[in-house]
Amino acid sequence: MIKVEGWEFKVIEGSIELLKKYNPIIAMEVWGKERREKFSKIAIEKLYKLGFNSYRINQSGDLIECILNDKIYTLYGWLEVSELFLDWDNFIFQRNYG
Known about the structure:
Layout: H1 8-14, H2 16-22, E1 26-31, H3 35-49, E2 52-57, E3 63-66, E4 71-74, E5 77-80, E6 88-95
Antiparallel strand pairs: 1-6, 2-3, 2-6, 4-5
């Protein structure tokens, strides 16, 4: 785990070749509300471009795929990002090989 406090997009930029080669599973803190645009959006977009999908972990410990653009899947169902009452949450990013 690397704790970079909002600089995830810089870590992703600097490790693109490593991410392409090794396809790690990434746990990342994603900011909600007004901090999303500043801190999380760029990192999420970079991961999506590399072929990663995003997941939430539900109460049973299962991965539930979600899209972190305009809507987000929460324990309460799909919500508009602007409706998020959380300042942040953790998400899993991994590539699928279906």
